C-alpha cells in the first residue's frame, strides 16, 4: 500500500513535470509565432485619475486607428496588435510601463504620455531601450531627440496666432492664469513674448498647482488689474472650477477668455454653456473642419463609437494621425524595426489626414500642420480663422537633428 | 475702498468654508475622541449626494442643504453601528479603521461615479460691489456657516439631547447610571457629525467640483483647524477658522495660492508650538 502510493506519487510528479515542460514549450512557441504574425504597439495613457478626461478620447482614437489599418489589410501583411497601459495619472507608472512595453511586449513603438512631465519621464527610458516614441500632446516645444516624434502643436504654431488674434478682437491687456509646471510656465512665457511683440501688456500672471480649486481671491485680483481678456493655461479636473467660479461671479459677461487647453478633455460638455460660451481656442483640429477627409473620418468614427460620442478632441486627433504617420514610416521602410522606420519618417512624410495636410519636419521630428482659431458657442466650436501649414519654428530654432543626430535634450527656449 | 470690502468678503468666505468643513470633525473628534480619517470622504459623499440629487431634478437648495446632510448622516450612523462602536477608547485602531474606510469609500465612489470631475453650477448669480463683482454664492456660504454654528450651539446648550450628549461625553458610566443609553447617544452624535460633513460637502460642491479623491484636500485642513482650535468645540473651530482662513486669503491675495497654503501650515505649526492645547486651551477656556 505504502509502496504503491509512493510509486503513484512519483509517477504523478513525472507526468506533472512533463506536462509543465510541454506547456512551457507550447507557450514559448506561441509567443514566437505571435511575434512574427503581428506588429505590436503600446499606448501609455491616463485612463483614470485626474487626467482621464484627456486620456480616454486619445485611447479611443488609437484603438480606432489600429482597427482601421487592420481592416484594410494591416501593415506589411501583418496585423497590428495594441497593448494598452493605464498610467492612472501616476508619475511612477510611466517609467515602469515604458520598460514593460519595451522589454516584455517588445513593441515597435510607444504612443502616449499626456503632461510634459510624464513625457520627460518616458523619453529617456524609451531612448535607452531603443523603442520608438510618439508624443501626441500640444506642448511647450523644445524636445530634441531622434527617438521621439512630437505630433502636437507648439507655441510658435499656436500662441503666435492665438494671442494676436485675441488682442485684435478684444484689446491689448492680458492676464494669464497657468498651471504650475513646465507646460504652464513656458507657455506663459511664450504668451508674454507674443503679447509684447504685438504692442500689448501682461497686467497679471498667476500659476496654480494642479490641485487648486479655490480661485476666489484670484478673481478679485483680476478685477483689480482690469485686463481686456484672460489667457488661460489651466490643466485638469480641479482647474475646471475656475470656469464655474468665474461665471458665478458674473465675470463671464465682463471679461472674455482665450484658453489653450479648454475642450481637450471635453470640458465644454461638462460645464454649462454659460460658463464656456465665447472662449477662444486655437488648435490643429476641430470637428467643424469642412474637409472631405474629416467628414469621412467623423462618419466612420461615429459608426464605431456611436452617434452621441462627445467630441473628437485635439489630442485624440493627434494620436489618431500619429498612428498613420508611423504606419506610413513602416510601409516605406518595409520593416517595423526602429532605425529604418525613423529614417523613413525623416525622408519627409506628408499625409492628407482629417486635420488637413500633416507632414513631419525631419530637422526637429515635429510636425508642419494647419492651425485653426475656434470659438465655443453652446457646446459647439465654430471656426473663425485658419492658417495654412505652420512650421514648429520654436523648436527648429534650437534643434537640428540632421546636424546633431545624437542630440538628446529638452531645450527650454529663451523667449 | 471697494477693494477692501471685496477682500474682507473673500476672507470671510474662506473663514466660513474652513469652519464648515471642520465642524463635523470637531464634533466627532472633539466630543467623541474618535480620530476620523474618513472625514474628507464624508465631505466627498455629501458632494456626490448634492450632484446626483440636482441632476435627478431636485432643487439645488434642497439637494445641498437637505439631501447631502441626511444621506451622509445616515451613512455615518450605519458606519458607527458597524465599525466605530467596537473601537471606542482605542484611538490607534480607530485611526486604522477609519483610514481603511476612507480608502474603501474612495474606491466605491470611483467605481460608481468614475474618476472624473463632476460639478454643478453655483446658483444665485453675482453681486456688484463698486467696480467689483463677486459670486452671491459666497455670501450664502457665510450665511450657512453662521446659521449652522448658531444651531449647533443652541442644540447643545438648550435642548435635552444636547444636555444628554454633553453629559455622556463627559462621563458615559454616570450617564448610563442615570438611565441614558450611551450607545444610542454615540450613534446619534456620530451621525450628526457625519451629517454636518455631508452638508459642507454639498455646499462646497458647486465651487470646487467633486472627484472621488477630493477628501484628501479637505481632511488635512479640517484636522489642522480642529486641533488648532483646541478643546472647546465651537469656539475653537471658529477661532482657528478665523485665524487660518484670514492668513490663507491675505497671503494668497498678496502672492499666490501655494504661498497662501504654506502660510496657513506655517501658522499652524507656530500656533501649536506655543499653544499645544490649541487656541481654546489657553483662551476662552469656559467656552462651549
UniProtKB/TrEMBL annotation, chain B:
Chief site of localization: membrane
Q: Looking at the keywords, is Nucleotide-binding present?
A: no
Membrane-spanning ranges: 12-30, 67-84, 96-114, 134-156, 222-244, 250-275
User: Which keywords accompany this UniProt record?
Assistant: Amino-acid transport, Cell membrane, Membrane, Transmembrane, Transmembrane helix, Transport
Taxonomic superkingdom: Bacteria
| Keyword rRNA processing in record | no
Q: Where in the cell is it found?
A: Cell membrane
Query: Membrane topology per the record?
Result: Multi-pass membrane protein
UniProt-listed InterPro entries: ABC_transp_permease (IPR001851), BCAA_transport_permease (IPR052157)
Q: Where is the signal peptide?
A: none
- Tell me which family the UniProt entry assigns to this protein: Belongs to the binding-protein-dependent transport system permease family. LivHM subfamily.
Listed name of the protein: Branched-chain amino acid ABC transporter permease
Amino acid at each position: 500500500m505504502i509502496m504503491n502510493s509512493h510509486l503513484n506519487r512519483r509517477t504523478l510528479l513525472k507526468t506533472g513535470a512533463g506536462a509543465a515542460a510541454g506547456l512551457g514549450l507550447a507557450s514559448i512557441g506561441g509567443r514566437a509565432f505571435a511575434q512574427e504574425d503581428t506588429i505590436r504597439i503600446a499606448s501609455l495613457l491616463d485612463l483614470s485619475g485626474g487626467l482621464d478626461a484627456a486620456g480616454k478620447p486619445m485611447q479611443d482614437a488609437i484603438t480606432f486607428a489600429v482597427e482601421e489599418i487592420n481592416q484594410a489589410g494591416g501593415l506589411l501583411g501583418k496585423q497590428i496588435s495594441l497593448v494598452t497601459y493605464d498610467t492612472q495619472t501616476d508619475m511612477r507608472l510611466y517609467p515602469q510601463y515604458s520598460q514593460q512595453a519595451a522589454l516584455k511586449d517588445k513593441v515597435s513603438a510607444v504612443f502616449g504620455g499626456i503632461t510634459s512631465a510624464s513625457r520627460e519621464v518616458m523619453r529617456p527610458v524609451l531612448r535607452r531601450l531603443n523603442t520608438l516614441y510618439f508624443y501626441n500632446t500640444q506642448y511647450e516645444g523644445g524636445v530634441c531627440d531622434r527617438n521621439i516624434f512630437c505630433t502636437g502643436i507648439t507655441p510658435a504654431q499656436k500662441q503666435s496666432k492665438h494671442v494676436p488674434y485675441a488682442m485684435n478682437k478684444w484689446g491689448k491687456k492680458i492676464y494669464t492664469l497657468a498651471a504650475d509646471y513646465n507646460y504652464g510656465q513656458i507657455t506663459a512665457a511664450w504668451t508674454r513674448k507674443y503679447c509684447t511683440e504685438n504692442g500689448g501688456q501682461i497686467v497679471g500672471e498667476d500659476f496654480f498647482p494642479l490641485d487648486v480649486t479655490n480661485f476666489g481671491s484670484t478673481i478679485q485680483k483680476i478685477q483689480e488689474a482690469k485686463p481686456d481678456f484672460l489667457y488661460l493655461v489651466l490643466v485638469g479636473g480641479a482647474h475646471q472650477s475656475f470656469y464655474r467660479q468665474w461665471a458665478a461671479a458674473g465675470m463671464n459677461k465682463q471679461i472674455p477668455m482665450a484658453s489653450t487647453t479648454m475642450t481637450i478633455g471635453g470640458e465644454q460638455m461638462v460645464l454649462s454653456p454659460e460658463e464656456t460660451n465665447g472662449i477662444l481656442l486655437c488648435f490643429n483640429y476641430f470637428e467643424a473642419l469642412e474637409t472631405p477627409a474629416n467628414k469621412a473620418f467623423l462618419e466612420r468614427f461615429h459608426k464605431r463609437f456611436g452617434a452621441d460620442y462627445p467630441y473628437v478632441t485635439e489630442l485624440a486627433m493627434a494620436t489618431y494621425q500619429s498612428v498613420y504617420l508611423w504606419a506610413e514610416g513602416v510601409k516605406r521602410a518595409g520593416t517595423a524595426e526602429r532605425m529604418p522606420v525613423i529614417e523613413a519618417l525623416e525622408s519627409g512624410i506628408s499625409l492628407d489626414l482629417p486635420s488637413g495636410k500633416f507632414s513631419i519636419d525631419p530637422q526637429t521630428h515635429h510636425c508642419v500642420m494647419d492651425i485653426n482659431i475656434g470659438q465655443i458657442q453652446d457646446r459647439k466650436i465654430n471656426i473663425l480663422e485658419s492658417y495654412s501649414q505652420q512650421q514648429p519654428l520654436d523648436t527648429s530654432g534650437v534643434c537640428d537633428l540632421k546636424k546633431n543626430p545624437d542630440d538628446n535634450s529638452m531645450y527650454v527656449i529663451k523667449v | 475702498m471697494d477693494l477692501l470690502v471685496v477682500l474682507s468678503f473673500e476672507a470671510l468666505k474662506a473663514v466660513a468654508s474652513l469652519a464648515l468643513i471642520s465642524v463635523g470633525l470637531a464634533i466627532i473628534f472633539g466630543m467623541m475622541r474618535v480620530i476620523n480619517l474618513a472625514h474628507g470622504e464624508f465631505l466627498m459623499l455629501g458632494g456626490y449626494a448634492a450632484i446626483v440629487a440636482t441632476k435627478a431634478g431636485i432643487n439645488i437648495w434642497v439637494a445641498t442643504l437637505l439631501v447631502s446632510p441626511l444621506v451622509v448622516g445616515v451613512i455615518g450612523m450605519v458606519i458607527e453601528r458597524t465599525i466605530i462602536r467596537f473601537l471606542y477608547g482605542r484611538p490607534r485602531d480607530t485611526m486604522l479603521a477609519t483610514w481603511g474606510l476612507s480608502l474603501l469609500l474612495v474606491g466605491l465612489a470611483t467605481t460608481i461615479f468614475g474618476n472624473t470631475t463632476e460639478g454643478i453650477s453655483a446658483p444665485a448669480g453675482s453681486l456688484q460691489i463698486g467696480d467689483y463683482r463677486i459670486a452671491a454664492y459666497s455670501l450664502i456660504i457665510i450665511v450657512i456657516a453662521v446659521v449652522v454654528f448658531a444651531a449647533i450651539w443652541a442644540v447643545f446648550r438648550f435642548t435635552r439631547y444636547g444636555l444628554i450628549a454633553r453629559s455622556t461625553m463627559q462621563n458615559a458610566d454616570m450617564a448610563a447610571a442615570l438611565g441614558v443609553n450611551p450607545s444610542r447617544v454615540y450613534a446619534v452624535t456620530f451621525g450628526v457629525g457625519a451629517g454636518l460633513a455631508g452638508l459642507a460637502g454639498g455646499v462646497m460642491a458647486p465651487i470646487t467640483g467633486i472627484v472621488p479623491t477630493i477628501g484628501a484636500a479637505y481632511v488635512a485642513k479640517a484636522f489642522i483647524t480642529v486641533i488648532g482650535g483646541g478643546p472647546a468645540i465651537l469656539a475653537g473651530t471658529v477661532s482657528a477658522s478665523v485665524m487660518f482662513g484670514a492668513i490663507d486669503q491675505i497671503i494668497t491675495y498678496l502672492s499666490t495660492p501655494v504661498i497662501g497654503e504654506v502660510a496657513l501650515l506655517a501658522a499652524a505649526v507656530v500656533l501649536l508650538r506655543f499653544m499645544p492645547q490649541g487656541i481654546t486651551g489657553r483662551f476662552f477656556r469656559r467656552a462651549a
